[in-house]
Amino acid sequence: MLNRELPKIITENLPGPKGEEIIERRGIATPDAIHCGYPCVMNKAQGAIIEDVDGNKFLDWIGGVGVLNVGHAHPEVVEAIQKQSEKYLHGMFNVVTHEGYVKLAEKMNEIVPIKGKEKKTMFVNSGAEADENAVKIAKAYTKRPNIIVFSGAFHGRTMLTMAMTSKKAYSFGMGPFPDGVYRAEYPYMYRKPSDMSDSEAIDYYISKLRRVFEESSPAEFVAAVVLEPLQGEGGFIPAPIEWVKAVREICDEKGILLIADEVQSGFGRTGKMFACNYWEEAGFLPDIITSAKSIAGGMPLSAVTARSEIFDAVPRGVIGGTFGGNAVSCAAALKVIEIIERDGLCERSRIIGEKCREVFNKWVDKYEVVGDVRGMGGMIGIEFVKDKESKAPNTELVSNLIQDTARHGLLIENAGTYGNVVRFLAPLVMTDEQLRAGLEILEQSICRCVIKDENYL
What positions belong to coiled-coil segments (predicted)? Predict the structure, then answer.
């Protein structure tokens, strides 16, 4: 079966002839701004393997950018989609009630770790929609106009979430943006001030947040602080628990809601169902969690979960939407959550993460260009630098690695402000043999791209 196979390139060139023809058509029919630099045109996919139209097999370590934690085309998810599609495809939840939405909301209220016993969940279609709705909900509850976000953040490409997102490549030339979005510095411990200990750095980053109240928005006008427990696009940077706990205390002190953006980190990716489960173990929780990506195994769906009193403050008509909580997507999501819980994919994420860290940490000692390895569970980033002393971002190397690994059957993706981080988002159903094959391809590619020996190519 395809999901058990190993990467294998059979065409002389990539893309192959069939793939090249489709990519040429893509260039004519679709916007170049939706750029793709990969030579893979999908024909079918299962588990962690993609077979292209020319018969090449790629090991997918991108997973639809965190969408495919249960793998490509999981047969039980496909079956759930088929069964629901035979009943009905859609019923707008503002007009008719369908039980799938209700069952999924009940399940989310059971598993999502937020502050408060009584919870409610709403569904929309994308991570950006979830984040935007979470901000609206926070403003409705607090009756305050402003929010605080962080350096390195990515929250989406709508007008509001572009303002929330840090990296300006995602919003270049798109202003003016909505007002009331202020930014603090996220704790990037690998790049903390060099003269500081970790504990001193935590205090430093907390002071940066407090300074926002002095220089940008008084606390009494801040509705919410929005942060990623583990930054995705920002470079797979985990928020230190001590810092998050201090942020939680500041929010409580100032009457501010804490929103955790778990769009990329949710549904087993970090070794827990949600990254905020680690916060829970440390004795605190956010007020609102947004989730998406792997929630429905590839079907479009996202969620906002908050305690009931927060949702109950929202006026009717402010939230909702035509396709939010689509019946087929809800059916897929219920099955995805069942698979994650039943098959122990959170534990599998931790095992994969341990295996990767063991290898990646050896690379830190072995290669001058490997600067840092970090993450949680199976959500790991490798930061590449020009040298360990300067820590200068090695963007060119990562770009070369992406192209070189693809030529050898492994799909990887970059992250970080400078695009110098390789992020690991492989499906959690990947086999040990596939994992070993991918690690071999990536290390061989590092050798080829660093040594620049044509005999390796």
Answer: none
CA–CA dist 7, 57 (Å, integer):
5
> Phi and psi (nearest 5°) for 264?
-95, -25
Tokens of 17: 């002839």
How large is the angle between the packed helices 345-366 and 327-342, nearest 10 degrees?
Answer: 70
| 229 and 279 Cβ atoms separated by less than 8 Å | yes
Residues 52 and 22: beta-carbon distance below 8 Å? no
**Which residue stretches of 143-240 are H helix?**
159-164, 198-215
Helices (H) and strands (E) in the chain, counts: 14, 17
Q: Are 339 and 331 in contact (CB under 8 A)?
A: no
Strand, helix or coil at 271?
Answer: coil
**CA neighbor of 136 nearest in space, from 286, 310, 323:** 310
Q: What is the dihedral of CA 29, 66, 310, 202, to 10 degrees?
A: -120
- What is the helix, strand, coil percentage profile of the chain, to 5? 45, 20, 40
Give the Å distances, CA to CA, from 272 to 126, 129, 192, 359.
22, 24, 27, 22
Q: Which residues contact 143 (CB under 8 A, 6 or more apart)?
A: none
Torsion on CA atoms 189, 191, 194, 199, rounded to nearest 10: -10
For each of the domains in the chain, give its residue range(s) and CATH number, in order of start.
2-60+344-456 (3.90.1150.10), 79-342 (3.40.640.10)
CA distance 72 to 298: 8
Report the largest interatomic distance among the alpha carbons of the chain, rounded to a whole angstrom. Answer: 66
